[in-house]
C-alpha cells in the first residue's frame, strides 16, 4: 500500500493505472494458471493461440471502457434520475450496503442479460461481440477479449436498471456510488472464473450462480441448436426466466464462431467497422 501511495505521488494517473493492472494480472496468474494445470477440462497450453492478443485486451478492457463511459453514464444517470420518484431513492439509500449490493447484482443482471442477448441477436452489435466469441480455446484470460464498443454497450445496459430503481445515482453521494463500483469489481472477478478452463461442477448450485460449465456452453460452436444460450453473467435463473438456459452434465466439444475473424488485435478492433466483410 505504501508503494502504491508513493507511485501515486510520483507518476501520472495513467501510469499508476498500468502498475495497478499489472499487480492484478500477477494475482490472477498465480490463482488461475496452477488451477487450470491441475483441473483442466480441455488439455491446452498456457500460451495458447491468441494469448498475447488477449493480454493486450486485458489492459484495453480495463482502461478504455471506463473512460469512454464517464460522459454517457453521467447523461443517462441524470436523464433517468427525473423518472424515479424521490421517495424511492431515499428508501433505497436507507437500506444497508449489503442489501443494496445484493439487489444491484440481481437488478443489474436483467439489464446485462438483455444487453448481451441483443449483442447476439442484432447483426450490427454481433459484429463487435463476435470478437469475444472467436476464442477457440477458453481460459480465464478470454474474459478480457472484448471490443470496447461491446463492453461499453453491455455495461450501460446493466446500469440502466440500477439508475431506474435508485440503486445507483448521479454523482454527489459517496455512499451510493460504492455500489456500482463493487458491482463492476465482483462482475469482473466472476468473469475470470466462469471463463476458466476448470472441470469443476457444482450440482444444483449451478442453477443459482454461474459457473465455468454454464458460460462455456455460451461459447459453444457445437451446432445451431446449442448456440445463443446462457446470456447471464452471474445468475443462471435469469436465463431460465427468458427461456435460454442450457446446462447439461457434459461439456462443449468445440468453441468459437464460423465467420471470419482478423488474427491480430488491430485487425479485430477495426473489423466491425469494415463493411466489406
Ligand atoms: Zn456472448
Ligand atoms: Zn465469455
TrEMBL record:
GO annotations of cellular component type: membrane
Domain of life: Bacteria
GO BP: lipid biosynthetic process
Molecular function terms from GO: iron ion binding; oxidoreductase activity
Localization: Membrane
Pfam families in the record: FA_hydroxylase
Assigned keywords, A-Z: Membrane, Transmembrane, Transmembrane helix
Domain Fatty acid hydroxylase: 103-244
Transmembrane spans: 14-35, 55-77, 97-115, 152-172, 178-198
Main subcellular location: membrane
Name of the protein: Sterol desaturase family protein
Organism field: Candidatus Methylumidiphilus alinenensis
Lineage of the species this protein comes from: Bacteria, Pseudomonadati, Pseudomonadota, Gammaproteobacteria, Methylococcales
